[in-house]
Amino acid sequence: MSPTNTPGPASVPAHVAVIMDGNGRWAQARGLPRTAGHKQGAEAVRRTLIGAGDLGIKYLTLFGFSAENWRRPESEISALMGLLRIYLRSEIAELHSRGARVRVIGDMSRFAPDITAMIAQAEDLTRHNTAINLTIALNYGGRQEITAAARTLAQEAAAGRLDPKAINEALFETCLTTAGMPDPDLLIRTSGEQRVSNFLLWQCAYAEMIFTDTLWPDFDRHHLEEAIVEFNRRQRRFGAVAGAR
Ligand code: IPE
Ligand code: IPE
Ligand code: MG
């Protein structure tokens, strides 16, 4: 991309969410085990975070492991957990030095205690950072998140602390794991698949979706910039009529 069509700060989406897909196919294409693709995928996370920070993206949300990914072979899951440990150990200090605020969304109850402890430490260490908000979705499912929010509100109502008539979108949002974050403006999915796979179902109500054939381990700043250029070609209407006042 030439520097002339590099997006300027005014045209950069505030929140970019990414379904990082295609690690396994990247590895298979090279005759490598799927794990090699996941390892390479961690490098793409690094590049994307740095690129997003440089571009002025304030929120970057990455789908790392879905609630449905437990259906994978035990060997792949344990390799993924191993890589998550390595990533947390090696990257947190740098993320902190880059001013990234790290958050993890998803159900942590199935993760090993050493992993949840590292996540808690990372969230705590980076709590006051403001350069970029990095949210990693782990054991995350949009339906599970919405169900949990409904359960919380139902419990409050059943206990007499909440009038069901007071439940509106704004209140519902406060019960989601992304409470307080703006909705994604742009959702990117790599690897050619064109589906949402249970990611941020509520939050992506009006996200622009960009599907790229690039496999996640090959994704870099250039692909991110290309997606933003495409995002800027879109006309967002939010249900209204174009140009109407
Ligand atoms: C995405 O890559 C990473 C995770 C879901 C953990 P995949 O592992 O889904 O790679 P493909 O889709 O099989 O190529
Ligand atoms: C979605 O990818 C989950 C992540 C990227 C973490 P999958 O590879 O699990 O999605 P499906 O199974 O192809 O829909
Ligand atoms: Mg996949």
- Straight-line N-to-C gap: 35 Å
Biggest sheet record: 6 strands, parallel
Contiguous helical run count: 7
Ions, cofactors and other bound molecules: 3-methylbut-3-enyl trihydrogen diphosphate, magnesium ion
Q: Which homologous superfamily in CATH is the superfamily?
A: Decaprenyl diphosphate synthase-like
Q: Give the CATH topology.
A: Undecaprenyl pyrophosphate synthetase
Mean pLDDT: 95
Structural class label: alpha/beta
Element string (H = helix, E = strand): EHHEHEHEHHEEH
- The CATH architecture designation is 3-Layer(aba) Sandwich
Q: Write down the domain tally.
A: 1
Oligomer designation: single chain
The CATH class label is Alpha Beta
In words, what does this structure look like?
Helices cover 41% and strands 15% of the residues. It is globular and about 55 Å long. The longest helix has 24 residues, at 74-97. A six-stranded parallel β-sheet has the order 3-4-2-1-5-6, with helices on both faces. α3 runs parallel beside α4 (113-125). It has seven helices and six strands; from the N terminus they run βααβαβαβααββα. It has 245 residues and is α/β, with parallel strands linked by helices. Mean pLDDT is 95; it is low at 1-5. α4 (113-125) links the parallel β3 (100-105) and β4 (132-140). 33% of the residues are buried. It has a single domain (11-141, 183-233), classed as Undecaprenyl pyrophosphate synthetase. The two termini are 35 Å apart. The chain has helices spanning 23-28, 34-55, 74-97, 113-125, 142-158, 169-174, 221-233, and strands spanning 15-19, 59-66, 100-105, 132-140, 186-189, 208-211. One 3-methylbut-3-enyl trihydrogen diphosphate binds next to β2.
